[in-house]
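COURSE: Structural Biology Practicum
ASSIGNMENT: Worksheet 4, Part C
STUDENT ID: 0417
INSTRUCTIONS: Below are two proteins. For each, the amino acid sequence is given first, followed by its C-alpha cell string. Answer the questions at the end about the second protein only.

PROTEIN I
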Amino acid sequence: MGLLEGKTALVTGGSAGIGLASAVRLAAEGAHVFITGRRKAELDAAVEAIGSAATAVAGDIADLDDLDRLYETIRDRGRGLDVLFANASVASLGTLEQVTEEHFDRLFGINARGTLFTVQKALPLLNDGASVILNGSTNVDVGDEGLGVYAATKAATRSFARTWANELKGRGIRVNTVTPGPTDTPALAALTPDPAAFHQHLSARVPMGRLGRPEEVAAAVVFLASDQSSFTTGSSLYVDGGLNQL
C-alpha cells in the first residue's frame, strides 16, 4: 500500500521538471493523478511515462475557462480531489530598468492570479482533509538581480498559503508551500543562453555544491500530500541544499 492509495491528485504544470517528477511519485504512491499544462505533446509523453494512473487535460491556468474545463473532467470521475499541487509557474529575467508591462503581467498572471484561481476553483472538489501544496521559491528570501518580479510572485504565493491554511482549517484542509532552491529543470536552463555556466554558478552558491533534482522536490511534495505531514499546515518546506539556511 502506497502513502496515497486510492487518492486523487492534481498537478498543474505536470508535463516537465518538478511537476512531472511529482506526478510520477504521487502515482507511485497509489494516487490517480491529473496533470495539466499548455503543451499537449509533452502531456501525452508524461501520461505514457506514468501509465494508466494519469489523466492529462491540456490548458493554461491563467485562462479561467481552461480551469473550468479541467475541474469538470475531475468532477466527472466522481471521487473529488485529495491532493492539489499548484506547481505551474513561469520565470524570466528582468531588472527594474528592463521590466515591461508584458513581463509583469505574464508572471503575475500565471504565478499569482493563476495559482489563486487554481485553488479557488478547486474548493468544491476538495475532499475534507485534503492537502494543497503551492510551489514557492527561495528567491522570496533574497534579492537576486533580475528576478524581482518573479520573486514578488512567489512572495504572494507564500502569503496565500498562510491565509488559505487559516481559512480552510475548518474542513481539515492543509495548505503548505514547497520551496525549492536551484533545481535542474528545463525551465532553469531556459533562463539563460549559457545553461552550463549558469548551472555552475548556481551550484557554487549551494552549500551542498550542486543543483537539486526534480525527484528530490517531488519527495517533499509526497510528504506534504500524505498523512505523514498531518500536523503541518501554513508552512514552507525548503528543499534547497542549505542555500537559504546556512
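PROTEIN II
(use this one for the questions)
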Amino acid sequence: MQTNTAITSNTGKTASSNLWLIIFAVVAVIGMICWGVQLGKGLQMTNLGVTNMWGLYIVGFMIFTGVAAGSLLFASVPYLFNLTGFKPYSKIASYLGAVSSIIAASLFIIVDIGNPERVWLFITSGNLSSPMFWDFIMLLAYMVISVIFTRMLILAAEGKADEKSLKPIALVAFIAGILVTVTSFVFCFQIARPMWNNPVQPLSFLIAALVLSLAVLVILASVLNKTGYIKMPVEMLTKMGRLMGILLCAELVIALAEVLVGLYPGSGEHYQAALWLAAGKGAPGFWLELITLLAAILLVLKKGPVKAQTLLAGAIIALIAIFLVKNNLLQAQLFNPLLTYPGPPMVGSVSGPYFPSLVEIGLSLGIIALGCLLLNLGLRILKLGE
C-alpha cells in the first residue's frame, strides 16, 4: 500500500514538473514572437524613447546579473567558511548562476540593442575604457566560473573529487560575485547624471545582488522542498531570510538617503530628480518601493519561529522591491537630464513615468521563462539535489 502511494506521489510530481516545462516553453515561444515583432518593426514597438532610452530590458539585465553574482557568492561561502549545513545546496546555487541567470542577463542586453547582429562588436571592437565592455567580460567570466564550479561540486558529491580541491574555485567564485559592482560603473561613471554619479551605487548594487539571489534561492528552495527534490530545514531558510532582511534594511537606508540628500539643497539638478521621484510623477513608484521594502523586512525579520510560507511571501515581495529600486533609479534620472535640447520641447517628448509596452512585457517574460525552463531541465537532468 505504501509503495503504491509513493508511486502515485512520484507520478503526480512528474506530471506537475512536465506541466511547468510546458508552461515555460509556451511563454518562451511567446517571447520569441514578441522579439520577432520588435526586430521586424524596430524599437518603436517599445515605449522607449530619446529621453528614456533604458527601460525594462536594462532593469532585467541588472536583476539577473545580480542573481548570478549572488548565487556565486552563496555557492562559494559554505566551502570557504566551512558552513557544512549549506554545502549540499551549493550545486543548485552555482547552476542557477551558471545557466539560467547568465543567459537571461545576456539576452536582456541583446534585445535592448535592437540589432543583435552587432553583438560580435563587443569582441572585435571592445573598448577597455567602456564600462559596458567590462560588463561583457564579467558575464563571460561568470559563465565560465559557474560551469567549472558546478562540475566540480557534482564530482565532489559523487566522491570523485576531494572537497579541499574546491577551495580555489570557490575563492575565484567569491571574488567574481563581489565584482558585480562593475555593473554599477555603467551608471555611476556618468557625471552628467547626478543621481547615478555617486559612490554609494557600487555598494547598492552589491546589496541588491545579495538580496536578489537570496530571495530567488528561498523561493526555489521552498518549491523544491514541497516537491521533495531537496530537504532544506526551515531553520536554514530562516537564516537566509534573516540575512536578506538585514540587507533590505541597508537598501532602505540608501534609498531614503539618496532622495533626502537630493531634496535638502532645494535647487539644482539632483534636487529636480529627487523631487520628481518623491513628490512628482515618479512618486507612486517610489512610495511603493518603500512600502515593499518595509513589508519584506517585517516578514523575514519577524520575531520568533517563522513559517516557510511567510519566508516565501517575504522573498517574493523582496524581488518586487528590488525591481522598483532599479526601475526608479533609472527613471528619476532619465526624465531629469542635466543637459537638455535648446528651444521648445520636442514633439512627442515625455517627462515620465515610463511604462513598458506589451511587446516589452511579452519579450521579458519570455526571457524569464527560458531561464526557468533551463533551470528546470538542469535540476532534472543533473540531479543537483542528490
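ANSWER KEY EXCERPT:
Q1: Residues 5-9 have pLDDT under 50 and may be disordered.
Q2: Residues 201-338 form one domain.
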